[in-house]
Write a structure and sequence with these properties.
Layout: E1 26-27, E2 32-33, E3 39-43, H1 47-58, E4 62-67, E5 78-80, E6 85-87, H2 98-109, E7 113-116, E8 120-124, E9 127-130, E10 137-140, H3 146-152, E11 156-159, E12 163-169, E13 172-177, E14 181-187, E15 189-192, H4 196-204, E16 220-228, E17 239-242, E18 247-252, E19 264-269, H5 271-276, H6 282-295, E20 304-314, E21 324-326, E22 331-333, H7 343-366
Parallel strand pairs: 3-4, 3-15, 4-11, 8-17, 15-22
Antiparallel strand pairs: 1-2, 5-6, 7-10, 8-9, 12-13, 13-14, 16-19, 16-20, 17-18, 18-19, 21-22
Helix pairs in contact: 1-3, 1-7
The structure holds flavin-adenine dinucleotide.
């Protein structure tokens, strides 16, 4: 590892007094830079896209993020009402890889993440038991989307831009968005940090013979119901894994650190049931899910109910490629579905794709 504090992060920097590194990058007073700005478009501001974008930027590349929603964080999401908040995508995340543990520890220091210690039960075959799982569970603080927002602060991002067409001309990527038409900037690299079906649909618009085989991968949906109460329910658990029913999980949002406001519960249907019934009307899906929750003790009456249909919630390739990259045409894919289907895998996928892009660019500069 380079001990020079100006090191770009790859760990092999040897920088002379003029700020020139052996690899061709140079110190601009703040960070190591390539002699010519290398521009990267990252489509998708979920945790994979943000991890990729922040690392690329720290390594001296010029990054622009495009996101169709109004804010960052993707499936690490929180719905806010006047009285309460509910995490309706990812419920918590674990950290096993040292790189991700370091990132989570930085988030905790910045007070945008915290350990969640719910009273956790398991429901199976009409019986309740305590869960003895010991693993540390982390959540965004005060909402699941806070770590994403924190990362997004430091990158240039355009929200409300649904990228619906990509094209490569003279070795430069050009983007078209549903909201703004042809975008002015052109990019050396294109990163799609999207769920597989959305990445595939976008890749196909290029008209190029891109290798889209990996992105053919199908993901499963998830029906989510959020129930907001005016009074505490005093149930004997904060969260529960449910086996053998149409729902798989329920959690009391206000048991998570930093949440204030009224009691609110998030209930997830299983991936299998959700996928089978993905085209149901929202009201009907909610009725069936709440019927199941009531059977096992969560009576959502009176409660304010909202419903969310995730079309692409979960699933991961096996074996896991970590990321995909086309060195010749300079495009890459990252996201949870390439690395285990969870928050940690998504973050690592973006991080490692960024490292690979920088390594390739450094090799080009050296030639
Ligand atoms: C219901 C549910 C429960 C979950 N529970 C857990 C859990 O408990 N623990 C855990 O670790 N993980 C959980 N996950 C998975 C976790 O949320 C994901 O692994 C992770 O958030 C994926 O991040 P990502 O960046 O790969 O993708 P995403 O978060 O999906 O990010 C993709 C982004 O791309 C944007 N986008 C899509 N198309 C376009 C376009 N054409 N143009 C511009 N932008 C576009 C989207 O708006 C989104 O912001 C859960 C997911 C769901 C849905």
């Amino acid at each position: 590892m380079s001990e020079d504090s100006r090191c770009c992060g790859i760990g092999t920097c040897i920088i002379n007094e003029e700020g020139q590194c052996w690899c061709g990058q140079r110190w601009d007073g703040e960070k190591m830079c390539f002699p010519r700005a290398i521009r990267v478009a990252v489509v998708g501001a979920g945790i994979a896209g943000l991890s990729c974008a922040t690392r690329l930027q720290a390594q001296g590349l010029q990054v622009e993020v495009f996101e169709k929603s109004r804010g960052a964080s993707g499936r690490m999401s929180t719905r806010q009402s006047e009285e309460a908040s509910a995490d309706h995508g990812a419920q918590y995340f674990t950290a096993r890889d040292p790189l991700f543990m370091k990132a989570v520890s930085a988030w905790m220091q910045a007070d945008v993440a915290a350990v969640w210690q719910p009273q956790l039960k398991v429901y199976e075959a009409s019986q309740w038991r305590d869960s003895h799982a010991q693993e540390k569970r982390y959540v965004g603080k005060p909402a699941m989307n806070t770590p994403g927002k924190y990362l997004a602060q430091n990158v240039s991002a355009q929200y409300g831009q649904t990228i619906d067409k990509i094209a490569i001309k003279n070795r430069q990527w050009h983007l078209h968005s549903a909201e703004s038409g042809d975008l002015e900037q052109a990019f050396d690299w294109l990163v799609l940090a999207l769920p597989a079906p959305q990445a595939l649909a976008l890749l196909e618009t290029s008209g190029e013979p891109l290798d889209t085989s990996t992105a053919q991968f199908k993901m499963k949906g998830c029906w989510t119901v959020m129930a907001e109460f005016t009074e505490n329910l005093h149930l004997p658990f904060d969260a529960a894994f449910v086996n053998g029913e149409i729902i798989s999980w329920m959690a009391r949002n206000n048991s998570k650190p930093g949440r204030s406001g009224a009691e609110s519960w998030t209930i997830h249907a299983t991936p299998e049931w959700s996928q089978e019934w993905i085209e149901l009307e929202k009201e009907e899906a909610a009725k069936r899910i709440l019927g199941c929750a009531q059977k096992i003790g969560l009576v959502a009456q009176p409660a304010k109910i909202s419903v969310h249909r995730w079309r692409y919630a979960s699933g991961s390739l096996d074996p896991m490629p970590l990321f995909k990259l086309d060195e010749k045409l300079k495009w890459g894919l990252c996201g949870d579905w390439l690395n285990g289907g969870r928050v940690e895998g998504a973050w690592l996928s973006g991080h490692h794709l960024a490292t690979e892009i920088q390594t390739l660019e450094r090799a080009l500069v050296k030639r």
